[in-house]
Amino acid sequence: MINENSEVILSVKDLTADVGDTQILKGLNLEIKAGEIHAIMGPNGSGKSTFSKILAGHPAYKVTAGEVTFRGQNLLEMEPDDRAKSGVFLAFQYPLEIPGVSNLDFLRVSYNAKRKQEGLEELDSFDFDELVRTKLDLLKMDAAFLSRSVNEGFSGGEKKRNEILQMALLEPKLGILDEIDSGLDIDALKIVANGVNQLRKFDNAILMITHYQRLLDYIVPDFVHVMEGGRILTTGGKELAFELEARGYEWVREEEAAEVAR
Amino acid sequence: MSIESAPAHAIEPTLKARVDRAAYLAGLLKSRPELSAELAELQGVRDRALAIAQELAIPTTRDEEWRFTDLSSLVQINFQPIHDQPTISFAQIESFILPEAVNSRLVFVNGIYAPDLSAVDDLPEGVLVGNLSAGIQLIPSLQNYLAKQQGSEEVFTVLNTASLIDAAIVHVPKNQEVETPIQLLFVSTSGDTATISHPRCLVIAESGSSLTLIEEYVTIADGGYFTNAVTEIAIAENAQVSHTRVQREGETAFHIGKTVVSQARDSRYTCNAISLGAKISRHNLEVYQTGEQTQTTLNGLTMINGEQVGDTHSKIAFTKPYGTSDQVQKCIVGDRAHAIFNGKVSVPQAAQLTNAAQLSRNLLLSPRARVDTKPQLEITADNVKCAHGATVSQLEDDEVFYLQSRGLNQEEARKLLTYAFAIEIINHIPVASLKANLTTTIRTQQL
Ligand SMILES: Nc1ncnc2c1ncn2[C@@H]1O[C@H](COP(=O)(O)OP(=O)(O)OP(=O)(O)O)[C@@H](O)[C@H]1O
Ligand SMILES: [Mg+2]
């Protein structure tokens, strides 16, 4: 839902970043306003996950130049947990397993960290249980997942659902979904997409990374960006995704090259 | 960190060190407390130990069994037995009493039975949980067990035996199942001088019996002291003992503890050994399977930081066929602390069809933390299954980041991951209040 007058949630200007001595992001620009859904597509290794982890504050990446502003704040100066508590959420492409920590405890600790930040009282386990159950229903997840260790032994699809369950609890202002559709069968995809759609509000935004146009049938983007070599090459509407699916990325590169030549 | 690393000894003047340390031991023996008249019949036990001890010395790091645990700082302190036993009020130790064992507990202060702090009304008839003089009166076979275990000639064990003045005695008769956990609480206080105490336990589980034992070492003082503890457990045919041992001595304390277990055929023994305290601690855990189809389960957790040294030496000796052992030792090491694990498993020719598994998992929380872990399998039987493994890891950046990305700050994230590593061991503890208490300790530990 595009509304020119909405608040700018995320603004990225000329962002460059390295891992070790290798530059991965090479001048990335992006602006996301409240209410919008953005999709980033692009070949393997183009830097999509790197970008998402930089937004969340992963220590392995070093930002060398550029700006990232999140709701008026300099995001790059914030610790990862402060970003999370301020409303940045990353659903990981490969969610980690944490043996020994129950999913329920993890969700509660994380939920209460955010409440504390907002100056609210922590929810006790009774109230939290109730809340988490409504979110489980949203994602059609069995309550048995709560007593298991975080992601341990979960199937690929279950891990992705668990990520969205966390998002449903934390209600971020910016949800970054890194390949939330990979490895999901069509039924699971519908459930996850439906969950994401229900979390949409006029004052939040979603940035999703995907390889497949299929996801965009269920979560319909306002903008589709093509990323390659650590930059956004081109941006279009949802039709662009169909074109990419049909024609691959080669033509985007050629057009870009032609434009640069001109 | 090293896994089975080559020895790296400090050069020591061997002969001189030995003489000094023999003299040091002689000093400890000389000042040992007197046996009371009612226990006079145990004088022989003490004297035999004394005779052995007089040939020995406090070990140096040149001794293979003490390679990594340097007792130089111990032998610099002139430890004395406590002369004026302090009066301890119940309020001072109340927090250590397990609600589940409120009427099945013995409290010892500096190794000496404290009747006013103990209560054993909650036990089935015929079960004895009492001090040494009660044991002598009520258990005719006591002397067949006391200081009779294998391995009882090791230096600190003989020092304990030679210094014997009291003990916790647990005797469970044939086919008696004791469901209430039995707590043996050893409290150290510090006097004006550095004190040494020699806590002692003897546990006899007759055939077909079962019991749950919680053995704890705690302090209500912060002065330096030395606990030299020995626990002997004799498990008869088809009996079952669940044993949880918690060592939370004071920061400047020394703790050397021996647990020696003999298991007759078809018996089952589980030890959950939790080691958190002391400046230097050592736990020698020895299990001797003497019959067929015997099961041994050892779960260990050492969690240390600062400049603590935490050493566990275990030994499981099979002698007959169809025995099993399952051992998991975890060490969490912070700051400049140093954990040591040496796990011996001995499977002689006669112990066919043995199944022994040993896993040593270590988590280093700081770049200067150190762990030395060494499996030591001595297997001569051919038809056996013996698995062992050792890992040394750190908290992964990706794991910490995952938790941070969900709003936990870095310290909370590290604490939660550390807790996650430890909890597998804590979960084996069969007493809910102790489990909860240790969970809190671990969850809030400064990293
Ligand atoms: N921690 C790292 N260490 C070394 N190289 C890295 C690291 N993270 C990313 N890279 C490299 O950066 C490049 C971009 O990786 P990234 O994971 O961002 O790609 P992606 O667009 O998400 O790819 P995919 O579609 O396969 O998920 C790759 O060449 C990758 O190998
Ligand atoms: Mg990726």
TrEMBL record, chain A:
Classification via InterPro entries: AAA+_ATPase, ABC_transporter-like_ATP-bd, ABC_transporter-like_CS, FeS-cluster_ATPase_SufC, P-loop_NTPase
Residue ranges annotated for the ABC transporter domain, each copy included: 10-254
Keywords per UniProt: ATP-binding, Nucleotide-binding
MF terms in GO: ATP binding; ATP hydrolysis activity
Record bears the keyword ATP-binding: yes
Cited PROSITE patterns: ABC_TRANSPORTER_1, ABC_TRANSPORTER_2
SMART domains: AAA (SM00382)
SUPFAM superfamilies for the chain: P-loop containing nucleoside triphosphate hydrolases
Origin: domain of life: Bacteria
Keyword Nucleotide-binding among record annotations: yes
Transmembrane segments: none
Family: Belongs to the ABC transporter superfamily. Ycf16 family.
PANTHER family in alphabetical order: ABC TRANSPORTER I FAMILY MEMBER 6, CHLOROPLASTIC (PTHR43204)
The name this protein goes by in its record: Fe-S cluster assembly ATPase SufC
Organism: Phormidesmis priestleyi ULC007
TrEMBL record, chain B:
NCBIfam families found in the cross-reference section: sufD (TIGR01981)
Domain (SUF system FeS cluster assembly SufBD N-terminal): residue spans on this chain: 40-184
Protein name: Fe-S cluster assembly protein SufD
Gene name linked to the record: sufD
Domain SUF system FeS cluster assembly SufBD core stretches: 192-421
A biological-process GO annotation: iron-sulfur cluster assembly
InterPro entries: Fe-S_cluster_assembly_SufBD, SUF_FeS_clus_asmbl_SufBD_core, SUF_FeS_clus_asmbl_SufBD_sf, SUF_FeS_clus_asmbl_SufD, SufBD_N
Family that this chain belongs to: Belongs to the iron-sulfur cluster assembly SufBD family.
